[in-house]
């Protein structure tokens, strides 16, 4: 399987790190399916499709196991295989533990952790059948270190890391690899929503003295998809924040 024949799926790909990853992979792959929660606007889609004719969009909520499985099956039915999965879809509902509602705790777990499992399970099954494939889950440095106001998010991303290491062990017998990236502070809608004070504080803790770009996470994801002897790893992409 050469890179030119590869078929990839990136979840939560409408913007941010997911969209940058779609573009990175589309420049070398046969086909990239971008999963979106809501369809792109006609203008957004026209611009993307003009630049990358080998990209298609698939609308599904990764938090719904049935939709996730149907999506993976549809890709395999159309393209005959699935070589790489990037589990990128994620949300935040920040609040101190004392004020966090059970609903907000569960909503974040449902998308970030259960959603990752929902897509990973049918993809792993297909890749094991092929005896080839690679999965990259998007975790976070918060999943390794915790953060004030992000108990739900930290728990979900810590779970993603445990899931990654387990999938790596289960997939290895059939040459399926599974790794994670743990981004630090990346300039996307997710970090734009943070209060200015929080962003300034975060910046002061980054030795490289800037937030990362989505494209910089995308190149790390691409590396993990391609590197044939790496599995079960968590690659931190954080400008030295957690060194
Ligand atoms: P973003 O908010 O720009 O993108 C998240 C995407 O996930 C959106 O396109 C959204 O529609 C999609 N999504 C949400 N729920 C979904 C669902 N149920 N089904 C399908 N798609 C869904 O955020 P960003 O920053 O690009 O985040 C991407 C990933 O990177 C997330 O998993 C996030 O937790 C992670 N991350 C981001 C960091 C940052 O600093 N921006 C740092 C560490 C991790």
UniProtKB/TrEMBL annotation:
PANTHER family per record: 3-OXOACYL-(ACYL-CARRIER-PROTEIN) REDUCTASE (PTHR42879), 3-OXOACYL-[ACYL-CARRIER-PROTEIN] REDUCTASE FABG (PTHR42879:SF2)
- The Ketoreductase domain, residue ranges: 6-196
Q: What domain of life does the native source organism fall in? A: Bacteria
Q: What is this protein called?
A: SDR family oxidoreductase
> Gene3D superfamilies under this entry?
NAD(P)-binding Rossmann-like Domain (3.40.50.720)
Check the record and name the PROSITE patterns matching this protein: ADH_SHORT (PS00061)
Which organism's genome codes for this protein?
Lactiplantibacillus plajomi
Similarity-based family:
Belongs to the short-chain dehydrogenases/reductases (SDR) family.
């Amino acid at each position: 399987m050469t890179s030119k024949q590869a078929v990839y799926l990136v979840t939560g790909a409408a913007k941010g790190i997911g969209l940058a990853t779609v573009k990175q992979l589309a420049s070398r792959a046969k086909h990239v399916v971008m999963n979106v929660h809501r369809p792109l606007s006609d203008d957004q889609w026209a611009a993307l499709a003009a630049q990358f004719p080998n990209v298609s969009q698939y609308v599904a909520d990764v938090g719904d196991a049935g939709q996730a499985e149907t999506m993976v099956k549809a890709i395999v039915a159309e393209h005959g295989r699935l070589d790489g999965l990037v589990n990128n879809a994620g949300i935040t509902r920040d609040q101190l533990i004392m004020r966090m509602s059970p609903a907000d705790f569960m909503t974040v777990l449902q998308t970030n952790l259960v959603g990752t499992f929902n897509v990973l399970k049918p993809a792993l099954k297909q890749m094991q059948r092929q005896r080839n494939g690679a999965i990259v889950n998007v975790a976070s440095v918060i999943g390794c270190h915790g953060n004030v106001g992000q108990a739900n998010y930290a728990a979900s991303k810590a779970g993603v890391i445990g899931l990654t290491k387990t999938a790596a062990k289960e997939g290895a017998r059939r040459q399926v690899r599974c790794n994670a990236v743990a981004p630090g502070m990346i300039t996307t809608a997710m970090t734009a929503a943070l209060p200015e004070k929080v962003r300034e504080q975060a910046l002061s803790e980054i030795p490289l003295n800037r937030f990362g770009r989505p494209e910089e996470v995308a190149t790390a994801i691409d590396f993990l998809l391609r590197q044939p002897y790496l599995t079960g790893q968590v690659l931190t992409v954080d400008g030295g924040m957690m060194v």
